[in-house]
Write a structure and sequence with these properties.
By secondary structure, the protein is α/β, with parallel strands linked by helices. It has helices at 3-12, 17-33, 37-45, 127-136, 159-170, 195-207, 225-237, 259-265, 275-289, 305-313, 323-328, 332-344, and strands spanning 54-56, 59-61, 65-67, 88-94, 107-110, 115-118, 143-148, 176-180, 215-219, 242-245, 269-272, 295-299, 318-321. Helix 10 packs across helix 12. The two termini are 27 Å apart. Catalyzes the conversion of dihydroorotate to orotate with quinone as electron acceptor.
Length: 345
């Protein structure tokens, strides 16, 4: 049993989930700051092999495993993430103006299900704070995507302006963008997945994308096929580079955690192991509709190495983890990469 499983995880899981996240990353930063700390972390968690490398959207990825949005909303950990073996990371969701998000507590563990429920509400320090951090980073080789959204108090009719602001401020500092209109935790946000709203948002961003920085759309798992068809039509019209499939779900079944406990936790997006089956169903439908050459990033339900491998085998070009990292610990990325290499030998 690893030190994470035997000591750190039990200790952190007794604390508020959001507080534990902050403390865990503070411990990682401390470990990286001592003499020889970074080298030790790299030896333990980083796996480098030419067979893991991929080039997609004109971007060279050292490996296909990335960190999903939500973990590092403000770019505070971008110097630490390569030490955990990630091939890339999606930072954000960031909005034009800082906002506190929803009241705490707003992040909950469902330990029996290896899942989380969150209703964070796009809490972040705003795009200019993120821009300053990105301008100051020492190593720009690590691949970063910016997940961008709208402020809660921005009317849906004006939402496209928020996405344009975030894109304009960050376009010289990241490798790709992800448009987030699919979080369930900002009231009315998922309404922006309708054809006309989406056409305006994506079209407005692409109209100022002179350098053709890759732009992807993150979709919700809770949609019917008619809406998916509309989304795919707009993606083609606006020449988007791909799909992140998918965000958290508002569904609550089937779960091992009791219905009474779930009801007590309240609203929010569900992530983790229960999303695995959902992903396969949605990815199949996306795969049937997405143009050849468009990139598919599998995000949701990656709870072990086998899950990641299955997603890559069934259509995903890259995979992202978040909840699985919390349950499996800092060695999770290396476990996935080792499994991928064993499959290729």
């Amino acid at each position: 049993m690893s030190m994470y499983e035997s000591i750190l995880k039990p200790y952190m899981f007794r604390r508020d989930a959001e507080e534990a996240h902050t403390k865990t990353m503070a411990l990682l930063r401390l470990a990286a700051s001592v003499p020889g700390g970074k080298a030790m972390l790299k030896r333990r968690f980083v796996l480098t092999d030419a067979r893991l490398e991929k080039t997609l959207m004109g971007i060279s990825f050292k490996n296909p495993v990335g960190l999903a949005a939500g973990f590092d909303k403000d770019g505070k950990y971008i110097d630490l993430l390569p030490l955990l073996g990630f091939g890339f990371a999606e930072i954000g969701t960031v909005t034009p103006r800082a906002q506190v998000g929803n009241p705490r507590p707003r992040l909950f563990r469902l330990e029996k299900d290896e899942a989380l429920i969150n209703r964070m509400g796009f809490n972040n320090e705003g795009v200019m704070a993120l821009k300053r951090r990105l301008e100051q980073r020492k190593d720009s080789r690590f691949v970063l995507g910016a997940n961008i959204g709208k402020n809660k108090d921005t009317a849906n009719d004006d939402a496209f302006k928020d996405y344009v602001i975030c894109f304009r401020e960050l376009r010289s500092l990241v490798n790709f963008f992800v448009i987030n209109v699919s979080s369930p935790n900002t009231p009315g946000l998922r309404e922006l997945q309708n054809k006309e709203s989406l056409r305006r948002i994506l079209g407005s961003v692409q109209s100022i994308n002179e350098s053709r920085i890759p732009v992807l759309l993150k979709i919700a798992p809770d949609m019917n096929l008619h809406l998916l068809d509309d989304i795919m039509e707009v993606l083609g019209e606006t020449q988007m580079d791909g799909i992140v499939c998918h965000n958290t779900t508002i569904r609550r079944a089937p779960l091992k955690t009791s219905a009474a406990d779930i009801e007590q936790l309240g609203a929010g997006g569900l992530s983790g192991r229960p999303l695995d089956a959902m992903f396969q169903n949605l990815l199949y439908e996306v795969d049937q509709r997405l143009p050849r050459g468009a990139v598919r990033i599998g995000s949701g339900g990656v709870h072990d190495a086998e899950t990641a491998l299955r997603k890559l085998k069934t259509g995903a070009d890259l995979v992202e983890v978040y909840t699985g990292l919390i349950y499996q610990g800092p060695g999770f990325v290396r476990q996935i990469l080792s499994r991928l290499l064993s499959e290729n030998t």
